[in-house]
Amino acid sequence: MTTTLQTPPTLIPPSRHPHADIIHRLEAGGSMLPDTPENLMQIIGIYKAYAVPMDFYWRDLLYIAEQVFLDPFPFFKYFISQEYLDRPNHYAGDTADLRIWRGRASAHPELLEFMEKGELKKKLPKLLHHLWHDRVNMEFAEECMRAMLWHRHMYAPVNQFDAYLDSDEYKQNADRAIRAYFKKNPVMLGLYKLFPDMFLEKVRELSYYSNLGLFWEVMAPVFFEMSDIYDEGGFKGVPDAMNFLVNGIFAIAGRPIYHHAYIDGECYEIIPKSKGFTWLYEAALPYVEAVFYRTSPFRGTKSYNAQANQVPADQKDFHYGILYADVFPVGTAGIPPTLLMQDMLHFLPPYLVEYYHQHCRGEDDMLVQLGITFQRSMYNVTSAVIQALRTALLYPLDDPNPKHRMANRKFFEAQMDRFLRPEARLRDIQSPDYR
Amino acid sequence: MPTIVDIAVQTEGFSTLVAAVQAAGLVEVLQSGGPFTVFAPTDDAFAKLPPGTVQTLVQNPPQLGRILKYHVVSGKYTQADLKGLKSLTSVEGSVIPLDLSDAFEVKNATVVMPDVEADNGVIHVIDNVILMG
């Protein structure tokens, strides 16, 4: 496992990479984010603020994939059923498959309180809260899901989920579910006959709802537990927090990724668990690539004009994820992460609110400040992914064989190559003045 | 001669692997079919995985089966056969990189005991669980 080494490795010469300082820190068991108490406080506080809306995201994503399904007018898809709020998280509470968070398995109390009273702090009918836009911004979760859907072939061929969506077996499973769903609706059945691919593509999208829902079902309890451990004084530094994530990634790596739809109480296995799809290969790694690195160009910062050539032609060159994002325009038009920042604002721990009050414009630019904290925290999550991959595919950090050390070095350098483009925020987060 | 499964069962130090093969329902396959080349991680190799990893896999047989199939190659390859080869394709479908230039290395694992002959193939004992990707 990743351990912090006391002495720098001397088996191989220092790296000549432009990010050599960070590569050496990773080789010593550290994170891309510098190890300071201030950084630790920020990232843990924001994990907590992120976990509460995430507890809604994963529940509603699964609700849409499994229950709303192909509803042609899904006006109420964000009005999640009580059953899905009570649904026990597989990694929290007494009934957990593997208990990560010591807390409860049903929806988080702060989430339930917010859903009931909202920002207005008034009990009103759900519909009024929704229309007044006093709610969880579920559109952000859907945007992440679409990023995964549209950036296809990520981590292929190890990621088998994406290829399966094009298989005959998948088409047959989807066909059975579509027919069952519309069996009392001759108009939709007729449309399906005319335009089968339109419906099939919609089911593929729903499969990604399920994929992302199952991914976040794991991350929410991980972040809650990290917040609790921090409150108990359990983390000594940023590397501790990163290692907790590395261990979490390994512990859950083998959880199944599937898509079940429930139609008239009957379960249709569109992607059965028996396919052997796993959380690590089919959800986590594609998610990191799609959402942390790529996503899609913000409407408010890039021109989609084909002649301007601002947007790359090749999807693998997309660099609009949180690791590259300019957070300063958060709160203005055309900047999608604003939705998430607004969601997290409601659930900040008191120590973080106080911290923001002391800096920049205090309460007035809290959205921007927390956005930059969020960026720092995601650099730490990405560091955990990089260290987990290194642990899984390469060698221990204290391996005595110079050849093995060099293989680790090459891997870290290849990862840091992705942060050589000027938009990357890796250098910014090295300084505490970036806020 | 005993089969691959028989050898694993009878030899000390493979109890985790045997339990995993049973949980994944692969006994039948490795007992009758073949020939196979199996890279068999020892109990110590499984113990190197962080806590919870094996538990989650044992709870989910198809996912466990997939990881185990990455340790199996169709056909019988002894150490001598593998000299000069850069990689093999596993039964899982992903590629296993090989390096026999100094030691006998399979991906990020080192073979600690090569060429254990079985009725339906050959076993190479490795010191790490190998993973796809």
TrEMBL record, chain A:
Protein name: CO2 hydration protein
InterPro entries in the cross-refs: CO2_hydration
Automatic annotation (TrEMBL), chain B:
Cellular component annotations (GO), alphabetically ordered: extracellular space
Pfam families: Fasciclin
PROSITE patterns: FAS1
Coiled-coil residue windows: none
The FAS1 domain, residue ranges: 1-130
Protein name (Swiss-Prot/TrEMBL): Fasciclin domain-containing protein
